[in-house]
Design goal:
By secondary structure, the protein is of the alpha+beta class. Helix content is 19%, strand content 19%. A 4-stranded antiparallel beta sheet has the order 1-2-3-4. The radius of gyration is 11 Å and the shape is globular.
Length: 78
């Protein structure tokens, strides 16, 4: 499994909230959640109007880019 580059950026920034019980419905890998701060917005510009960004930790998964939300559960996250 290739590491997701968004995770690497978040490690540098340390403004990360990883939810240990979140997994991707498509591949089964862990899903990490991030505060939509300046570092995440730099990587994912569409996060500018979101509270949270979630991305699959598996860079080979179709959900590796992730998706923003306003406290609502995402359909691909279990």
């Amino acid at each position: 499994m290739k590491p997701n580059l968004l995770i690497e950026q978040a490690k540098i920034d340390r403004h990360v909230t990883c939810c240990v019980n979140q997994v991707c419905r498509d591949c089964g890998a862990h899903v990490s959640s991030y505060n939509c701060n300046a570092s995440v917005i730099a990587q994912r510009p569409e996060a500018v109007d979101k509270d949270w960004w979630a991305a699959c930790d598996n860079a080979d998964c179709k959900n590796a880019y992730g998706e923003g939300s306003f406290q609502m559960p995402l359909k691909w996250v279990r």
